[in-house]
């Protein structure tokens, strides 16, 4: 694993685990000192996190952890509730045993991450599960939109979610796969809608004040 990837994973985990709360400033000089790398290396990692909506980079102000507001959180989840269940019939037109096996492997990875208390991995894995299902439906425009919504959902879950937001409390993804294997479009649509509504209801939409972050203690080597 490259040094950039290690730094990326550490920062992503810190955001998801709320060690870097929404709104926290991310000064390149202090991060560079904490990680023992150049500011150029830190800038590359911040740019990657910004592409995934975890970080916001403002000209002349630097970077900070993105802070989605309550309205944005609701709109993102409501959009997914509207779109993803409607993709199920088209998805079933392409569904086969190989797809079932592939997605069951993803579910096993999700459960392992949950078992190991790897919240960042759990959030990313559940996002991948959803947008790869959308891709399989065959509508690239909608699939790309769902992918962006899943990235934004990942940030929302990192900011306002609980472990229950990505665990079995919101529904085991293998239940959906069972319905797809059986060809039950209506039941699968209902499951997906209920699943996403449960995730939305699990969010704790309160503001967390920015903390004085000790980057050396958090990331120092």
TrEMBL record:
CDD domains linked: WHTH_GntR (cd07377)
Domain HTH gntR-type, chain residue ranges per copy: 1-68
InterPro entries reported for this sequence: GntR_C (IPR011711), TF_FadR/GntR_C (IPR008920), Tscrpt_reg_HTH_GntR (IPR000524), WH-like_DNA-bd_sf (IPR036388), WH_DNA-bd_sf (IPR036390)
Molecular-function GO term, any one: DNA binding
Keyword line: DNA-binding, Transcription, Transcription regulation
PANTHER family: HTH-TYPE TRANSCRIPTIONAL REPRESSOR NANR (PTHR43537:SF53), TRANSCRIPTIONAL REGULATOR, GNTR FAMILY (PTHR43537)
Protein name as annotated: GntR family transcriptional regulator
Native species: Marinomonas arctica
Source taxonomy: Bacteria, Pseudomonadati, Pseudomonadota, Gammaproteobacteria, Oceanospirillales
């Amino acid at each position: 694993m490259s040094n950039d990837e290690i730094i990326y994973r550490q920062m992503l985990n810190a955001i998801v685990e709320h060690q870097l709360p929404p709104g926290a400033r991310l000064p390149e000089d202090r991060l560079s000192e904490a990680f023992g790398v150049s500011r150029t290396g830190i800038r590359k990692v911040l740019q990657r996190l910004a592409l995934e909506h975890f970080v916001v980079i403002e000209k002349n102000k630097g970077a900070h952890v993105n802070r989605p507001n309550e309205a944005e959180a609701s709109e993102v989840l409501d959009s997914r509730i509207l779109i993803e269940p409607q993709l199920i019939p088209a998805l079933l037109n392409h569904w086969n045993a190989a797809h079932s096996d592939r997605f069951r492997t993803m579910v096993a990875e999700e459960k392992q991450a949950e078992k190991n208390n790897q919240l960042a991995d759990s959030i990313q894995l559940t996002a991948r599960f959803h947008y790869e299902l959308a891709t399989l439906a065959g509508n690239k425009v909608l699939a790309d939109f769902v992918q962006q919504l899943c990235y934004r959902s990942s940030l929302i879950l990192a900011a306002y979610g609980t472990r229950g937001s990505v665990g079995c409390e919101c529904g085991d993804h293998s239940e959906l796969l069972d319905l797809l294997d059986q060809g039950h479009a209506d039941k699968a649509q209902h499951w997906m809608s209920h699943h996403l509504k449960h995730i939305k209801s699990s969010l704790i939409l309160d503001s967390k004040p920015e903390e004085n972050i000790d980057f050396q203690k958090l990331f120092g080597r």
